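Notebook p. 47: complex prediction with phosphoenolpyruvate.
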Amino acid sequence: MNRTPIIAGNWKMYKGGAAGVELARDVVRACGDLAGVTVVLSPPFTALAAVVHAVAGSRVEVAGQNLHPKAEGAFTGEVSAPMLLDAGCKWVIIGHSERRQLFGETDQGVREKTAAAMAAGLRPIVCVGETLAEREAGRTLEVVSRQLDAFVSVLAERPGFGTIAYEPVWAIGTGKVAGPEQAQEVHQALRQRLSSTDAKLAHVTHILYGGSVKPDNASGLLSCPDVDGALVGGASLDAGSFAKIVEASPSRV
Ligand code: PEP
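Predicted complex, structure tokens below:
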């Protein structure tokens, strides 16, 4: 199975407004016309429409960083899947460890959001990952399997539409990256878990790696057989660094 690599930049709560538009334009200039890789930018909500406008006509696509599972309602401060689509997004990040740790997101909540995104036609990038304590206790595969089990049946409703991101919590924003063997071990286990639901699902589902991906470690990670791209935080805030990661995708080298 040839899964076209996906490189997604998670800008977190950085680069709103004009700074986001400038970064998006720089990314388009640096890698907006590259074939053989899907490039996704995930700005803060306030910059979504402007970034969609800035990337129009290029191959770059746009993601929200979160969504509410309901389509509309009295949920102050929230944004729904139809609203993200309306703003021009094709993707949404769900269950990022910062959402799970700082905002109390549960496996059940992640499932509901994934279902809402899929039902609306928004491609989810659903994050899983263990903490340092869980890894040190030898519980990595148990934890990521539990997190995946919560939403796998939703992904199975439309195989290949949803994407998983394995992001070890200890590697996010810390500069500590999982080595290619560590990443491959977990990605392979996740794919095996997918295949126990549905063999086709396992073949067509992208599993991205995230956690301190930088230009100098990207090619080692991206060349692992079960690593189908990257979810990039810090390095996505610099167009040059992000473009180097895009260029390190196997189909680009
Ligand atoms: C992330 O925020 O999803 C992430 C992986 O961050 P960083 O690349 O900075 O570790």
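Notes: The radius of gyration is 17 Å. The longest strand covers residues 123-128.
Next step: compare against the earlier run before touching the bench.
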